[in-house]
Design brief:
The protein is of the alpha+beta class. 29% of the residues lie in helices and 25% in strands. It is built from four helices and six strands, in the order H-E-E-H-E-E-H-E-E-H. Strands 1, 2, 3, 4, 5 and 6 form a six-stranded mixed β-sheet that branches. A hairpin with a 4-residue loop joins strand 3 and strand 4. 36% of the residues are buried.
Length: 136
């Protein structure tokens, strides 16, 4: 459901929701994510919760995509299990997405429905890792 006439990649949302409903079980896997690659493919994954930390579903999708030879992602969304709907990325995932895919759009929920926003909009006045690397 897009807000105010904006296009949202509903197919990516449906893919993440399907994985959340069918693959997330118990406390170890509570979030699913899906991303659309530049070539149109959709990659999905689930988080790996552990008390020592663990990757969020978005990070699992980034690794899964790389394992499939996909290095350009255009859209990302996370969906919670138990019908929690679209969930915005945590700060760590926002930073990772900005560093890996500075042009990626992230689907988030708003009071007017779902919206696709540039990841940089989710991290105003942020640290951009690439801007602070010394030239070789």
């Amino acid at each position: 459901m897009a807000g105010r006439g904006e296009w949202v990649d509903d197919e990516v949302v449906r893919a993440a929701a399907h994985v959340a409903a069918t693959r997330c079980r118990g406390d170890e896997h509570t979030m699913a994510a899906a991303a659309r690659a530049r070539d149109g493919r959709i990659v999905t994954g689930v988080n790996v919760y552990h008390f020592t930390g663990g990757p969020c579903a978005e990070m699992v999708v980034v690794g899964t995509a790389a394992g499939q030879g996909i290095y350009d992602l255009d859209v990302m969304v996370a969906v919670g299990d138990r019908d929690r709907g679209v969930v915005p990325p945590c700060g760590r995932c926002r930073q990772l997405l900005l560093d890996y895919f500075p042009e990626i759009k992230v689907i988030v929920g708003t009071s007017n429905g779902l919206r696709m926003v540039p990841v940089a909009e989710l991290l105003p006045v942020t640290y951009v890792w690439a801007d602070h690397q010394l030239d070789a």
